[in-house]
Amino acid sequence: xxxxxxxxxxxxxxxxxxxxxxxxxxxxxxxxxxxxxxxxxxxxxxxxxxxxxxxxxxxxxxxxxxxxxxxxxxxxxxxxxxxxxxxxxxx
Length: 91
Prior knowledge:
By secondary structure, the protein is mainly alpha-helical. The chain is built from five helices and two strands.
């Protein structure tokens, strides 16, 4: 599992990782623990990275992605989507 997390992180923007080098070791540990606790892999790994960051900062995640429900993080979801189509604007 840790190898899959490490491989996915290697694909992440290296400049972004350089800005947070000190917190990365702790975050990698948190991500690995999150992934192992929910049996995550593949597309859930980036969500685990976001969740780990939110957990470290005692923050919530604003997302429409329902995969976050599998992770122990508070998710804020919009109540309704805004219709920006031309027919809605004409009414």
